[in-house]
Amino acid sequence: MMLQDLIDNFADWESLVRIWPLLAQGLWVTVKLALVALPLGMAAGLLVGLSCALGGRAVRIGLLCWIDLFRAFPVLVLLVLIYYGLPFLGFTLPAFAATVLALVLNNSGYYGEIFRAGLASIPHGQREAAAALGLSPLRAMLLVVLPQALRAVIAPLASNSLELVKATSIAAMVALPELLRSARVAQEQTYNPTPLMAAAVLYFVLLWPFAHAVARLERRMLKASGVGR
């Protein structure tokens, strides 16, 4: 009897069939958020990292403050400020754009620190050798230093990207019908937790291959560095 009650409450097939279109719509919104925010956040982080490496002392100090600010600022609070606060300044963003902006700003700090650390780890002699070949500082950074740095930071980049995809659930705060929000609406229609359980399974199916790939990358990086031998 207890098993049947568990199935009726958390795995009701009839409820799942009825609310599946709503969950599918939410899953698609979650995927779209990730597809838009991830490359924009990574590009913003790369710009921050390159500017730190090429800029003067004042630029580096300002960008380090940027990195610390957005890494310390909760992304949910940032979304609330953007979506509900900007209208008081005369700027109104749709829920999708506000969520993307919050994710990009927050992750520009994380990606920026990853790229900054990766670029700083490359010996300065690489730049000097590139300069001796007649390359400008920017071309030396893009053609010589950055490719080496990318190999060193690919695992943390992938790990942070996984966290960004997870963070798309904050869109529920501004009533954007992503997967979590859709599951909550569906729960109100079915009067049982089946939609939330289905959403959890969908998140797992969506993210587990990514998480598995990140773990493999991290193990390879540790093995290549000789840690754990």
Automatic annotation (TrEMBL):
GO biological process entries: amino acid transport
Recorded GO MF terms: transmembrane transporter activity
GO-annotated cellular components: ATP-binding cassette (ABC) transporter complex
Superkingdom of source: Bacteria
Keywords recorded for this protein, A-Z: Amino-acid transport, Cell membrane, Membrane, Transmembrane, Transmembrane helix, Transport
Pfam families: BPD_transp_1
Transmembrane helix listed as a keyword: yes
Occurrences of domain ABC transmembrane type-1 (ranges): 27-215
Protein name: Polar amino acid transport system permease protein
